[in-house]
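Annual report, structural modelling task.

Input specification for the dihydroflavine-adenine dinucleotide complex:
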Amino acid sequence: MNPLRPVILAAAGSPRMKKVLTGTPVTAGIVRRFVAGETRRDLLPVVVDLLGSDRLISVDFLGEYTTDRARADATVAEYLSLINDLAALGRRDPPGVEPAPVEVSVKLSALGQALPVDGPAIATDNLHTLCTKAAEAGVWVTVDAEDHTATDATLASVRALRPEFPWLGTVLQAYLRRTESDCADFAGPGSRIRLCKGAYREPHGVAFQHASEVTDSYLRCLEVLMRGAGYPMVATHDPVLVRAAEAMAAETNRPAQRFEHQMLYGIREAEQLRLTEAGYALRVYIPYGNEWYGYLTRRLAERPANLSFFLRALVSRS
Ligand code: FDA
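The model returned the following structure:
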């Protein structure tokens, strides 16, 4: 894990930093590398292009930590329209055992989980609305993982809805000390788990801090999922983990259609194509919308080269 990551994430939380980053035209170029655009109109050609290259897709409408009910409702409305548009491009009827080519990813804090009164119940209701629509449309839904204070509420929402929507997926973060045990809980038949390293600034008590500890935890968690009866989603760009997933799948006799690799839009494009050509299912996570600040700063924090590219561009303009 990049040692500067906690510093960059802490700085990104300052309103002054937000003003600087969002106020310069230089940022627009960097945003475009990681975000498909601000509107569904910008997004859809990107989706068509990726599906045309045999990649699967998952779309995230950007936004998080909503403390306003009207905003949560507007997010639900946008997702309903998004599901309609995506269904026209790649529906799978009904969503079930075979990988659905199109999926939406959603943060429960954008659906109202952080509202002061009944937040988790409101977010669960809103997630139910999205899953009902997605089931009709033949589209999958996966719930993103946010900071560790939300983990219990998020997993409770997913557990509540899985009996009705068994294909509802969720993300687990390997940097959390609890995750190996959560993987064991969620490794049952049909369970779709997207395993990632984790992108937030977390305290030592709840999360591994060193890159090697996170990698080791990822490998232990992945082994639990690969040996389980669910559908593992291997969300990483790390070559060591990508290779480990391939080796574990071979060792556990898991066919290429019973798990998938996942990468973020704009990252390791050549590797995405290599995996697709090698016959693996590869899903690209595509964010869009104008609330890109939190997403962008997590991508900058993951890789110092992204940040220095940004700073060089900033200096050369001044
Ligand atoms: P690592 O950071 O070690 O990167 C390995 C290599 O990948 C790097 O050496 C570089 O080549 C490339 N790379 C990685 N990040 C890059 C970047 N930003 N820019 C350029 N190159 C980069 N996190 C979370 O907390 N909650 C969530 O819900 C999700 N959801 C999610 C979905 C999907 C599909 C993916 C792929 C990832 C997430 N994440 C996430 C993010 C995840 O936790 C993690 O922060 C990033 O994937 C980076 O970690 P890697 O495993 O790629 O390894």
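Residues 36-291 form a domain with the TIM Barrel fold (CATH 3.20.20.220).
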